[in-house]
Write a structure and sequence with these properties.
alpha+beta, 2 domains, 5 helices, 36% helix
Amino acid sequence: MASDPRCTFCWKAATDLCGRCKAVRYCGRTCQRADWKTHKVFCGVEYPVKDGKVASYRGVLFAVDEEKPRFMELPVSNIGDSRTASILPMVVQALGELRFGLRSVNHHGRLANVERELMRGQLVLHCHNYNFNVKDDLPPNLALREFTGLGMEFDMPGAVVITKERRMRTEEFMDVELDDLKDMVDILRFQMRVSAEHRKIIKNFDMLGSLERIQQQYDNETEHQSRHTEE
């Protein structure tokens, strides 16, 4: 049963293949239509060619200067002087200058399904660990807007990379596949909404701080005028 084909959208038993790319399966037309807005971005796109001389794993890059996300190969390299092999150095390189450090978020998927997670692994979102208190010049990510369908109020600034691990926080890497796209949308939409909420909180704190400063200034001026009047 574990090897039976599953619907990429709902994870039920699948019977139909995408007629164009022949790479993902669905349980019927309903799920296929529901998934098309996401799937069409990559439908028919060929995976990057792997270099047989260097171990690598496929991820997805949401670059700030591109309108759509794309697959990319992330070669494995050693971290520092250790023998620990990782794709993180290439992830960092793809993200560009990390002014506030790297933030990586694991995603458990849409279903609490152990069998599914063992078969398909878990996605990891890598992005800039930006500080909403600091005004920065990280450009908006248009590829994220295109892929998720969320507006500019949900922007996550800077580039974003999606990778996949066999189990959470193990760095047992796997290739991101076409049937991971729905989970990718889920984790991106969730994190973009979290970012929007953080911005609201910071804005409210800034507004509260401004009101407190205005009140303090008013109190100081009132106290100064009272002293002047008494004199």
